[in-house]
UniProtKB/TrEMBL annotation:
PANTHER family associated with the record: BASIC AMINO ACID ANTIPORTER YFCC-RELATED (PTHR43652:SF2)
TM region(s), chain numbering: 6-25, 70-87, 107-135, 147-167, 187-207, 251-267, 273-292, 312-333, 405-425, 437-457
A Pfam cross-reference name: DcuC
Recorded topology in the membrane: Multi-pass membrane protein
UniProt subcellular location: Cell membrane
Record key words, sorted: Cell membrane, Membrane, Transmembrane, Transmembrane helix
Full protein name: YfcC family protein
Coarse class of the protein's main subcellular location: membrane
Length: 460
């Protein structure tokens, strides 16, 4: 497996080569309210715009420009968490948690997966998971697991919630509004799906965690774990029974919890996104540093140190977006979507529903944004569903599951790459760890699509 940068750049070059082979095409787009909607009957071939070497090169800075908000988010959260780590609050708090969980470590995994899943399914927790990765990895190591469990509890937990999306406004909400369905209708089946995915994911992580806990050499990331545990900054919280929780650290803990409470309120009530969340983290980092008694110069140095650690992840996010830019500029994206949807137009209803699911999975490789994929594909899938006697709610479910599952393994996902970069996990080792679970998720999704079509999942 090549370096992640090499892998993503290879995809960009392949997309540019395909722009010389695949005919260019375009759907007409109209604004309905604040949404850009595709007219599914308007596809027409247009003059090709093949991408050359210079186009590939310019796509890189354009990708970085398009994802500057995520890069900003990574830098400020990295800086803020580095300041927070230097106060020792996290280590002290985790040592208390570790002490209280002696003999009950297995309960940590399903509880955290449940919490992250509920957040993913209600407030659409996705990019925001990046800020929890360092905490998840620290906690996982402290109770005898490895960094894969830490990322799994946080990232896969949020993925379970975002994908099942029983009340996700960013995926299900957008798709249902385009399909003219009542908002969050059909929630009962999605709740059942959420519970099943939560149970399956928790069991998968617990079984792997037991192997690692019994013998660290069973860890897929054994070399990375040994390097991390031998570093000067590592502290074994299991051996840190004498770590005190000082008054200053308790005040910093209050700031920490209060910051996340403010973020939750802002996301749910004020429409906050990563810019506002990043601002809260800046404030949290500065306030924590001053409470601990750091000098202004110290805070600045620590912030820069933490931000530097995010450079790898920030560059990956930009590269992932450059791939989308190449396909958009070449105008081959609409052609690929049109061809994929046309391939299932003559199948029986149940197979058509399964075909929609498959098409959405494929499209997700090119459009990883949940609301973005809904805006592009649902205006096509809804009339197609009507023509094929597939309920619109089933079409939404096909989009929802096809859009969500593989986000937890695709190298084009900037969020995943940022999570792995923070945890120090090579992409190929994450694939080895998560691929079996992805297969299980996809099969569960297919079963639910078939059930939805057979029961006439509605209201229509």
């Amino acid at each position: 497996m090549p370096h992640t940068y090499v892998l993503l750049l290879s995809f960009i070059i392949i997309a540019a080569i395909l722009s010389w082979i695949i005919p260019a095409g375009q759907f007409e787009r109209v604004l309905v309210g604040e949404r850009e909607i595709i007219n599914p009957d308007s596809f027409a071939h247009v003059a090709s715009n093949p991408q050359g070497v210079f186009d590939v090169l310019t796509s890189l800075p354009r990708g970085f420009a398009r994802t500057q908000d995520i890069s900003y988010f990574l830098f400020v959260t990295g800086g803020a968490f580095f300041i927070l780590n230097k106060t020792g609050m996290i280590e002290s708090a985790l040592s208390r948690i570790v002490t209280s969980l002696k003999g009950k470590e297995a309960f940590v995994i399903p509880v955290i997966v449940l919490i992250m899943g509920l957040a993913g399914s209600t407030i659409g927790l996705s990019e925001e998971t990046i800020v929890f990765i360092a905490l998840g990895v620290s906690l996982a190591r402290a109770i005898g697991y490895d960094s894969l469990i830490g990322v799994g509890m946080i990232g896969l937990g949020a993925g379970v919630g975002f994908t099942s999306g029983f009340m996700n406004p960013f995926s299900v909400g957008v798709a249902q509004s385009i399909a003219e369905l009542p908002l969050f209708s059909g929630i009962e089946l999605r709740l059942v799906l959420f519970i099943i995915l939560w149970i399956v994911t928790s069991i998968y992580l617990v079984l792997y965690g037991r192997k690692v806990k019994s013998d660290l050499s069973n860890s897929i990331v054994y070399d990375e774990e040994m390097a991390a545990r031998n570093s000067a900054d590592y502290q074994d919280l299991n051996a840190a029974d004498n770590i005190s929780f000082t008054t200053k650290q308790k005040l910093i803990a209050v700031v920490f919890v209060g910051s996340f409470a403010l973020i939750a309120y802002g996301v749910m009530s004020l429409g906050w996104f990563i810019t506002e969340i990043g601002a809260v983290f800046i404030g949290m980092g500065l306030l924590s540093g001053f409470i601990y008694g750091m000098k202004a110069d110290e805070i600045a140095d620590y912030f820069i140190e933490g931000a530097k650690d995010m450079m790898y992840a920030a560059l990956i996010v930009g590269l992932a977006q450059s791939l989308v830019i190449i396909m958009e500029d070449a105008m081959i994206l609409d052609t690929m979507i049109h061809s994929l949807t046309g391939a299932i137009s003559n199948l029986p209803a149940v197979l058509s529903a399964a075909g929609m699911y498959t098409v959405q999975i494929i499209i997700n490789f090119f459009i990883s944004s949940g609301s973005g994929q809904a805006a592009v594909t649902m205006p096509i899938m809804v009339p197609l569903a009507d023509a094929l006697d597939v309920t619109r709610q089933t079409a939404v479910l096909s989009y929802q599951l096809g859009n969500g599952f593989l986000d937890s393994i695709m190298p084009m996902s900037g969020i995943l790459m940022a999570q792995l970069a923070i945890a120090g996990i090579p992409y190929k080792k994450w694939v080895k760890f998560s691929m079996p679970l992805m297969g299980i998720w996809l099969v569960i999704g297919l079963i639910f699509i078939i059930i939805a079509q057979l029961i006439g999942y509605g209201p229509f």
